[in-house]
Amino acid sequence: MLSEFLLRCAISGSIACALYVVFAFLMTRRYDRKVARNVFKHDVKLGLISLLFGSPVLQVFGMAQERWGISRLYMGFADKGWIWWAVSVPVYVMLWDATFYVTHLVLHHPFVFRVSHFRHHKCRPPVPWSGIAIDPVETILSGILPYVVPLFILPFHIYTVYAINILLMGWATLVHSSYDWSESPVFMTPKDHNLHHHFGLKNANYAAIFTFWDRLFGTLNRTDRPAWWGVEGWVPKVGMPAAEPLAARAPETADLS
Questions:
Q1: What per-residue confidence (pLDDT) applies to 256?
Q2: Which DSSP string corresponds to 189-237?
Q3: What is the reported pLDDT for 238?
Q4: Residue 156: helix, strand or coil by DSSP?
Q5: For residues 53-77, b (16+ Cβ closer than 10 Å) or e, as one string?
Q6: Where are the chain's structural domains?
């Protein structure tokens, strides 16, 4: 049992790290941004820590699922019918994003922010390598829970879930990039998420994929813009720290210079 677990952790962790490097590298080549900080020392290190911590946690879940069927995952594509399989893809993504929205609000609780989430907000401005630059606490809240919570609510096909979460890793690198995409009525864009990184504790734009949840709960901010948006080599002004991990200002009153 232990040897199987360790082997699975080694395989899944290696694959996850390789995918992260490929996604972030390709996105960086396409949407490069010059930053005044050491991306490899902070963003990449946290990203690899997150994957190496999260992979064993997911393997515990996977082995428990195989042995005891603790969730509603199923194996065969047609087990629940092809119509449900087709419908289940957007349903899973919506539930994933709803869970992420809630856990992201938890990460912005003052205590949780100060002990964990401020590290991700040090990615300022964010780059594709920042996509999963999170510590183990945040890995549980914003990485593991959005992945598994929907699996206890509705039936989802196991390999489809794997594929969706691989694509979502690529999405994470995109929304942290400098890709000039904004004002989508449906999706949270790179500009939206870059604005989230501009602020600290009190913030907006908490969802990862869709605008629905922020619209519903009044936390969507498309009035302001990140200080670095459209600026190739942004450097904080004199007296402004490179990151504001403990900022408590609301977006509408923050200094955007």
A1: 29
A2: -HHHHHHHHHS-SS-----SSBSHHHHHTT----SS--TTTT-TT--PP
A3: 55
A4: strand
A5: bbbbbbbebbeebeeeeebebbeee
A6: 2-224+240-253
Token code pair at residue 17: 């790290």
Is the pTM above the cut of 0.70?
Answer: yes
d(CA 167, CA 189): 16
Residues lower than pLDDT 50 in the chain? 239, 241-257
**How far is the C-alpha of 82 from the C-alpha of 102, rounded, in Å?**
30
Cβ-based neighbours of 252, under 8 Å, separated by 6 or more: 221, 223, 224
Q: If residue 6 lies in a helix (H) or strand (E), which one and from where to where?
A: helix 2-30
Q: Which amino acid is at 187?
A: F
How far apart, in whole angstroms, are the C-alpha atoms of residue 128 and residue 145? 22
∠ CA 153-110-36, nearest 5°, is 100
